[in-house]
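sorry for the late reply, my laptop died twice this morning and i had to redo everyting from scratch. anyway the thing you sent over, i finally got around to it. pasting the sequence first so we're on the same page, its 124 residues, then the predicted structure underneath. double check i copied it right bc i was rushing
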Amino acid sequence: VVNVAESGGASVQAGGSLKLSCTSSDLRFGDSDWAWYRQAPGSECELVSVIKSDGSTQYGDSVKGRFTASQDYAKNILYLQMSGLSPEDTAVYYCAVLESDRRIPSCYYHMDYWGKGTLVNVSS
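ok and here's the structure:
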C-alpha cells in the first residue's frame, strides 16, 4: 500500500496563516505530479494547487496570491503555505499524487494516490 500523509490542519481565525505538509515514503518528486485538493461539507471537490513533474505550478483561482505550494526535495515533503485565510477556506485538505501520464483530475480520489486529509477550520 502506497503511503501519503498530510499534516498541519488546525483551527485558525480569519486573516491567519497555516502551513500544511504532505509526505510519502513511497513516492518521489520529479516522477509525478503532486497536488492539494480541498473539499468542504456539502461542496464539490476543488483543486487548490498542483506541482507538475517538470516543476511548474498551478493554483485554483480562489487561492491565487494567498496560497503557495512548494517541495522540499531533501525531505520529500510537499508544503502548502496558506495566508489571508477566510471562513470560505474551511475544508478537509487532501494531498494527492499522479504518476500516470494523464490530465489532472477534478478530485483527489481520481488521482493515483491520496491521503486521508487534514481539516482546516477558519473562524470569523
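The first strand starts at residue 5 and ends at 7.
thats about all i looked at so far, will dig more tmrw
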